[in-house]
Amino acid sequence: MDSSRRAVESYWRSRMIDAATSDEDKVTPVYKLEEICELLRSSHVSIVKDVSEFMLKRLDHKSPLVKQKALRLIKYAVGKSGAEFRREMQRHSVAVKHQNWFPKWAYGN
């Protein structure tokens, strides 16, 4: 019973991240970002790690819109959520820094 509850909660958290980093050409509303930050502030360290892993997986998406929204979500959450999330993002800072989602034609020559 307890494992099924954890699975449902994990699914709910992944749906929150999916909604905030959707492939639509719309800006993610701030209230969704705030909900995720509140979840990160009030959750256990293991849940923060799971959510940060899911955010980092969204950075590997093929769509540049999803990557941009994931980077924006990470930037917003680092400033608004707790120290555990900041620490987790520092551990994975290389993966965030090496995002090559911007198309080469946008650089000019």
UniProtKB/TrEMBL annotation:
Key word tRNA processing present: no
Location of this chain's protein in the cell: Cytoplasmic vesicle; Golgi apparatus
Source organism per UniProt: Punica granatum
Main location: cytoplasm
Domain of life (superkingdom): Eukaryota
Protein name: VHS domain-containing protein
GO terms under cellular component: cytoplasmic vesicle; trans-Golgi network membrane
Ranges for domain VHS: 20-89
Matching InterPro entries: ENTH/VHS_tepsin, ENTH_VHS, TEPSIN, VHS_dom
SMART domains: VHS
Record key words, sorted: Cytoplasmic vesicle, Golgi apparatus
CDD domains per UniProt: ENTH_like_Tepsin
